[in-house]
């Protein structure tokens, strides 16, 4: 292992400094001996140490030429020819007055990969330490530094090795590219570099092209690929990306394929979506012992979230992202606090737990018992329902009991519809998996699931916080009446405005009617057909 000429830890370099400095030579020989023993563990030089140390360093070393002369004079120790093999990269001087001469080693002018060697001098220009790595054998073992393949051939070989083409990594859409107008970011998102180096692996030296392929799509990469300059074969290749946004994929609760925004760190993938313009992230966790919150990070080794047990996390993650996008794109609202707060979800909560909830901090999903419910994150309307509870909490603040509580529930169901507008059912994707056409609730037909849909049938109860999941049928039916009359696009604007501008913690049904009418007036005009539709929608459920 002769390549490691010097491999000094900082602690030992202090010892080195004491041995080197002329003044310390006056110390007892005992002390010098023990210092040399330390050196012999970390440095590969022969036992001529003390003679080497004497005198030589009393001369000042205050520039590149003198450092090289110092190394030449001690060539038995350093075993490289500083004049032909070392090139000064930089000299820096720090606040302590110490200077650091950073050299790279080369063979016939071709740099040796990884060969950085630094000579350190104190404020009196005496060498106090030498750190880094030199390759003593490089110029002996590699004599021919003339490449047999072209730079372009090396780059082509590198792309082939990672099974991609440069075009695959450009981030623009095909449409944009076929119109010939590549986005500016395409030009910058992929970087190819190649340079000739001396490559060492397991004591074997090769002339190589060091090809760096850096790109973001289809995955974050900083490939370092060493291509043999003799024949284009791959000597070594690794992806130096250690952290960053990645795109994975998985299967949801209903076994549907979806892509996922994930995060790669230290060899592991996490359900962290860092791609949104948030202050936080969208993160999905797993309840480890049933009811522990927030639970543990959900991880995967290869970014393919395909295990049956991962389906609930796949959907919680993908659907939280969809709901975030909806609020941002449709209502210009950045997360539930409109300040980009982290959206956290925990799945596999409890045992056979037939519910999902917002606990004031995060969303929580049970897996269901398999007959009443399957994993509740498997329904986009359920996820929208839960995240809308967070929006309501930070806006109208509707108290979760009696009429204000039923409104709170209703707004969650109504936004569940806005996110999942295929039908007016709530939770149909996860409720009673064995029964087709079944659902938790219906906006169009609340009575089908035991809810009132007119004030005449309002349920006075103290259970379920004053019937919040029952009496929500009344405002839900008014929402259905509204949407079916004016369409989703206008309805969602009106509902969002009422929730975020007009409603307050104690608002009742009558107040909600007034708030929605005011919003319709603001947006579409008082007395407009849209306004009149909202009025009729509430008249029909007996709320005035
Ligand atoms: C409910 C949220 C969801 N839970 N309905 C009791 O009745 C009770 C809870 C719910 F995840 F199921 F949608 O809506
Ligand atoms: Zn709810
Ligand atoms: Ca639905």
Q: Would you mind describing this structure in some detail?
A:
With 544 residues, the chain is α+β, with helices and mostly antiparallel strands. It is built from 18 helices and 21 strands. The strands form 5 sheets. Strands 12, 13, 14, 17, 18 and 19 form a 6-stranded mixed β-sheet that branches. Strands 15-11-10-9-16 form a 5-stranded mixed β-sheet, covered by helices on one side. The chain has a 4-stranded antiparallel β-sheet with strand order 1-2-3-4. The structure holds ligand L5Q, zinc ion and calcium ion (CA). Calcium ion binds at residues 381, 420, 423, 425-426, 428.
Fold topology:
Elements: H1 10-20, H2 29-42, H3 49-53, H4 64-73, H5 75-78, H6 82-85, E1 86-93, E2 99-107, E3 110-121, E4 127-132, H7 138-141, H8 151-161, H9 174-178, H10 184-189, E5 191-201, E6 204-215, E7 221-228, E8 234-239, E9 243-251, E10 257-265, E11 268-270, E12 272-273, E13 282-286, E14 296-297, E15 299-300, E16 304-305, H11 311-331, E17 343-349, E18 356-358, E19 363-366, H12 380-394, H13 402-419, E20 425-426, E21 441-442, H14 464-471, H15 473-486, H16 488-502, H17 509-524, H18 529-539
Parallel strand pairs: 9-16, 13-17, 17-19
Antiparallel strand pairs: 1-2, 2-3, 3-4, 5-6, 6-7, 7-8, 9-10, 10-11, 11-15, 12-13, 13-14, 18-19, 20-21
Helix pairs in contact: 1-2, 11-12, 12-13, 13-14, 13-15, 15-16, 15-18, 16-17, 17-18
The protein binds ligand L5Q, zinc ion and calcium ion.
């Amino acid at each position: 292992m002769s390549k490691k000429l010097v491999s000094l830890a900082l602690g030992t370099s202090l010892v080195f400094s004491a041995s080197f400095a002329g003044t310390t030579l006056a110390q007892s020989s005992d002390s010098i001996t023990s210092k040399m023993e330390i050196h012999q563990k970390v440095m590969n030089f022969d036992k001529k140490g003390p003679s080497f140390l004497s005198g030589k360093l009393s001369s000042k070393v205050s520039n590149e030429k003198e450092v090289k002369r110092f190394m030449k004079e001690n060539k038995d120790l350093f075993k490289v020819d500083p004049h032909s093999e070392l090139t000064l990269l930089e000299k820096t001087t720090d606040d302590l007055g110490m200077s650091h001469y950073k050299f790279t080693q080369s063979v016939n002018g071709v740099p040796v990969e990884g060969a950085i060697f630094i000579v350190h001098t104190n404020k009196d220009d005496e060498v106090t330490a030498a750190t880094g790595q030199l390759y003593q054998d490089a110029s002996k073992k590699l004599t021919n530094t003339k490449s047999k393949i072209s730079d372009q051939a090396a780059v082509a070989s590198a792309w082939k090795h990672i099974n991609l083409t440069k075009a695959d990594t450009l981030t623009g859409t095909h449409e944009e590219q076929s119109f010939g107008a590549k986005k500016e970011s395409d030009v910058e998102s992929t970087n190819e570099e190649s340079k000739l180096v001396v490559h060492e692996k397991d004591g074997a030296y090769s002339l190589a092209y060091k090809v760096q392929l850096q790109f973001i799509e289809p995955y974050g990469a900083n490939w370092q690929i060493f291509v043999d300059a003799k024949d284009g074969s791959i000597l070594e290749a690794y992806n130096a990306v250690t952290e960053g946004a990645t795109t994975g994929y998985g299967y949801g609760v209903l076994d549907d394929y979806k892509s996922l925004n994930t995060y790669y760190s230290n060899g592991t993938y996490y359900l962290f979506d860092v791609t949104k313009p948030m202050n936080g992230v969208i993160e999905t966790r797993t309840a480890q012992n049933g009811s522990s919150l927030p639970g543990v990070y959900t991880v995967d080794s290869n970014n393919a979230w395909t295990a049956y047990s991962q389906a609930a996390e796949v959907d919680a993650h993908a659907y939280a992202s969809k709901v975030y996008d909806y609020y941002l794109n449709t209502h210009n609202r950045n997360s539930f606090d409109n300040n980009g707060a982290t959206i956290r979800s925990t799945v596999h909560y409890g045992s056979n737990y037939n519910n999902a909830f917002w606990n004031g901090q995060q969303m929580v999903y049970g897996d269901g018992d398999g007959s009443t419910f399957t994993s509740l994150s498997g329904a986009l309307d359920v996820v929208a329902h839960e995240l809308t509870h967070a929006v309501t909490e930070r806006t109208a603040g509707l108290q979760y009991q009696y009429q204000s509580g039923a409104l709170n529930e209703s707004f969650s169901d109504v936004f569940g519809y806005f996110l999942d507008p295929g039908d007016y059912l709530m939770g149909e994707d996860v409720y009673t998996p064995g029964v087709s056409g079944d659902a938790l609730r219906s906006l169009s037909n609340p009575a089908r699931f035991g809810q009132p849909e007119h004030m005449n049938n309002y349920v006075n109860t103290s259970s379920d916080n004053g019937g919040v999941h029952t009496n929500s049928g009344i405002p839900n039916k008014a929402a259905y009446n509204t949407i079916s009359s004016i369409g989703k696009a206008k309805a969602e604007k009106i509902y969002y405005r009422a929730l975020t501008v007009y409603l307050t913690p104690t608002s009742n049904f009558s107040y909600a009617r007034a708030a929605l009418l005011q919003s319709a007036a603001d947006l579409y005009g008082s007395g407009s057909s849209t306004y009149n539709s909202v009025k009729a929608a509430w008249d029909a459920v007996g709320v005035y």
